[in-house]
């Protein structure tokens, strides 16, 4: 990230394409679809391998549907939304929606998936208590984001969770750890031309969207708003939509 003149916003750097594989780690079905899916669509179109790992099935996310029913509905909606942007490998953890706890079990589960998928890049949510524009970050998001950050280190150290080696998962070193929904972005992905796919990916969550309040923005309103804000932050001519990221280069 280039240092700006005093009082000016930071200049974001292009994310680039010097990687082959991405693992998106989030708490719930639909977390990836609020903007990240646009970058996923771009990457899969370019031949990158992108996989998803969700720690819950979002079973507590629909007030009008019992959790045991909602879990299957939301899992399928996530698979459908992933398919829209070219992702076929979607896996789920066994943590309970709404009460995900940061701790060793969560770190171990994420480290296992990192070792199994062997991604160059890990994408997860910002674990601060506030989103962009001051909105409060949800508890599961915070727990999963922090655990994913720690699990990137855990995945590369054979002496942390040595039982994973016994399970057949050798250590793996993630090259870049990226946070979405961050108030402190360092990089941007130009997703101009991928807006419709991103909107379609969120629209695939039909049951979930239908249960939201009427005042909540529809996918065709919300996704463009998020990505247009990203383009404004990128400040690059010709970039009309962008995903912004806080990127940590790990080696």
Name its key features.
Rossmann fold; alpha/beta; LmbE-like_dom_sf; PIG-L family deacetylase; 251 residues; 8 helices; zinc; hydrolase activity, acting on carbon-nitrogen (but not peptide) bonds, in linear amides
Description:
- By secondary structure, the chain is an alpha/beta fold.
- The chain has a single domain, classed as LmbE-like (Rossmann fold, 3-Layer(aba) Sandwich).
- Helix content is 37%, strand content 16%.
- The protein contains 8 helices and 8 strands.
- It has helices spanning 36-45, 67-84, 104-117, 139-155, 163-166, 195-203, 206-210, 219-234; strands at 13-14, 21-26, 49-54, 90-92, 121-125, 176-180, 187-190, 242-249.
- It has an 8-stranded mixed β-sheet, with helices on both faces.
- The protein is globular and about 50 Å long.
- This is PIG-L family deacetylase.
- One of its GO terms (biological process) is glycoside metabolic process.
- Pfam families: PIG-L.
Secondary-structure blueprint of this entry?
Blueprint (H helix, E strand, L loop, with lengths): L12 E2 L6 E6 L9 H10 L3 E6 L12 H18 L5 E3 L11 H14 L3 E5 L13 H17 L7 H4 L9 E5 L6 E4 L4 H9 L2 H5 L8 H16 L7 E8 L2
Parallel strand pairs: 1-7, 2-3, 2-5, 3-4, 5-6
Antiparallel strand pairs: 6-8, 7-8
């Amino acid at each position: 990230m280039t240092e700006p003149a005093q009082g000016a916003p930071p200049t974001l750097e292009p994310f680039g394409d010097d990687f082959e594989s991405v693992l998106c780690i989030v708490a719930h079905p639909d977390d990836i679809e609020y903007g990240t899916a646009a970058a996923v669509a771009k990457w899969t179109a370019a031949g990158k391998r992108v996989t998803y790992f969700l720690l819950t099935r979002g079973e507590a996310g629909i007030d009008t549907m019992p959790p045991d029913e909602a879990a299957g509905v939301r899992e399928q909606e996530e698979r459908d939304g992933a398919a829209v942007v070219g992702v076929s490998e979607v896996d789920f953890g066994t943590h309970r929606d709404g009460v995900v706890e940061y701790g060793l079990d969560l770190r171990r589960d994420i480290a296992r998936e990192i070792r199994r998928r062997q991604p160059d890049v890990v994408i997860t949510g910002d674990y601060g208590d506030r989103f962009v524009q001051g909105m409060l970050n949800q508890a599961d998001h915070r727990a999963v984001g922090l655990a994913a950050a720690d699990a990137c280190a855990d995945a590369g150290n054979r002496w942390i969770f040595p039982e994973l080696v016994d399970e057949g998962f050798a250590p793996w070193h993630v090259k870049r750890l990226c946070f979405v929904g961050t108030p402190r972005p360092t990089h941007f992905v130009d997703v101009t031309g991928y807006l419709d796919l991103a909107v379609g990916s969120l629209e695939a969550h039909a049951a979930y969207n239908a249960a939201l309040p009427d005042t909540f923005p529809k996918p065709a309103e919300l996704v463009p708003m998020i990505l247009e804000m990203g383009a404004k932050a990128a400040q690059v001519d010709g970039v009309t939509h962008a995903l912004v990221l806080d990127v940590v280069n790990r080696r």
